């Protein structure tokens, strides 16, 4: 028998199976749950007013050249200062030959979208196609894998007007070994006091470990530290990043993969094993509760800090994400059978 929670899932299915919907991303806007995803070279947006039980018909936001999509590439969505902001990387040639990070903005609940603004200030430097975005405390922050110099580096930019304009790019981190991990997506979130946190997988001393960069001056400069106590010696890119969340007490939580195990850690503390798997995502709830999703084999796994064991949300699926809805309950989304499943978790 399928878990009871699956009876209340939203299944969003494309009109034609030749163009599957991929890489869903969720965010909250007051009482509205926002969803974006990619299909081919197009970006789509849909909204839910009942915490993910049902969604509006997806509308096309844009189609701009070749969209970076798949393996954690694809659009991101946030909302701030009355705007819905969607970011994505696209290029005229695509396939890593070119690519810029753009921001689309809507001030009418997603009905229309403004002309996109390029975030990276060196043309073509975002061509790896991997980025993250977050909004809170007065600004919107984007971070991405950047190729403006030799080797892959992490750069960021801050918008102070809800995504309408973006500031000068800041170097978050450049590895002394010449490059960070070249195909693992970064994560970004903003703390209660306005600190900006960027997580990325490094390539340092033969290891592919997760690192955290922290800025306390609005993204101008960053200080970097390693996450966890162990290490992963690997001469390859696992194509797997992780996620960040800020607990209600202000502590920073992270989730990521080491070898075949999903790990979680608080900043400055030893990591804990959550279970076998990959492609994890994390959300923080009330009373410092933690919610996590990941892929184990073919299954979508969910775990809450309120219960000791992981449960299966679906027997198959890929690239899950979890966030906290405005009702205080977690909502997960993932790819499945060419469409997207959104699952409020009771």
Description:
This protein is mostly beta strands and 346 residues long. The protein has one domain: Neuraminidase. Helix content is 0%, strand content 49%. The protein has no helices and 29 strands. The protein has strands at 10-12, 22-29, 32-39, 42-48, 59-63, 66-67, 76-80, 83-91, 100-106, 117-118, 131-136, 139-146, 153-159, 170-173, 187-190, 196-201, 210-215, 223-226, 242-246, 252-258, 261-266, 272-276, 278-284, 290-296, 299-304, 311-314, 318-324, 330-336, 339-344. The strands form 7 sheets. Strands 6, 7, 8, 9 and 10 form a 5-stranded antiparallel β-sheet that branches. A 4-stranded antiparallel β-sheet has the order 1-29-28-27, with no helix packed on it. Strand 20 and strand 21 form a beta hairpin. Residues 1-7 have low confidence and may be disordered.
Tell me the count of domains: 1
Distance between the termini: 17 Å
Mean pLDDT, rounded to whole units? 94
**Number of extended strands:** 29
Q: Work out the helicity level.
A: under 10%
- H/E order of the elements? EEEEEEEEEEEEEEEEEEEEEEEEEEEEE
Structural class: mainly beta
Give the overall form: globular
Q: What can be said about the biggest beta sheet?
A: 5 strands, antiparallel
Low-confidence stretches: 1-7
The third-level CATH topology is Neuraminidase
CATH class: Mainly Beta
Strand residue percentage: over 45%
CATH architecture: 6 Propeller
Supply the key terms.
single chain; 346 residues; mainly beta; Neuraminidase; four-stranded antiparallel beta sheet; 29 strands; globular; disordered N terminus
């Amino acid at each position: 028998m399928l878990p009871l929670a699956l009876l209340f899932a939203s299944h969003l299915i494309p009109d034609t199976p030749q163009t599957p919907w991929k890489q869903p991303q969720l965010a909250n806007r007051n009482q509205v749950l926002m969803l974006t995803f990619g299909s081919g070279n197009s970006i789509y947006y849909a909204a839910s007013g009942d915490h993910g039980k049902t969604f509006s018909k997806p509308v096309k936001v844009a189609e701009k050249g070749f969209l970076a999509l798949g393996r954690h590439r694809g659009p991101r969505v946030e909302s701030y200062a009355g705007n819905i902001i969607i970011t994505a990387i696209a290029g005229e040639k695509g396939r890593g030959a070119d690519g810029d990070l753009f921001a689309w903005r809507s001030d009418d609940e997603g009905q229309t979208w403004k002309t996109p603004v390029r975030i990276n200030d060196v043309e073509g430097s975002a061509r790896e196609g991997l980025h993250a975005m977050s909004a809170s405390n007065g600004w919107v922050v984007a971070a991405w894998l950047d190729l403006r110099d030799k080797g892959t580096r992490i750069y960021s930019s801050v918008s102070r007007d809800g995504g309408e304009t973006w500031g000068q790019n800041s170097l978050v981190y450049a590895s002394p070994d010449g490059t960070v991990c070249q195909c693992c997506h970064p994560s970004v979130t903003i703390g209660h006091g306005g600190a900006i946190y960027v997580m990325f997988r490094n390539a340092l001393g033969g290891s592919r470990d997760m690192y955290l960069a922290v800025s306390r001056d609005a993204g101008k400069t960053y200080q970097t530290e390693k996450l966890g106590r162990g290490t992963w010696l690997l001469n390859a890119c696992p194509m797997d990043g992780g996620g960040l969340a800020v607990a209600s007490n202000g502590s920073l939580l992270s989730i990521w993969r080491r070898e075949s195990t999903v790990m979680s850690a608080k900043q400055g503390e030893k990591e804990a094993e959550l279970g076998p798997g990959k492609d994890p995502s994390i959300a923080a709830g009330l009373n410092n509760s933690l919610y996590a999703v990941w892929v184990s084999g073919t299954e979508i796994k969910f775990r809450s800090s309120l219960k000791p064991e992981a449960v299966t949300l679906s027997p198959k699926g890929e690239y899950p994400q979890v966030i906290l809805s405005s009702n205080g309950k977690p909502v997960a989304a993932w790819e499945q059978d060419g469409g997207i499943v959104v699952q409020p978790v009771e």
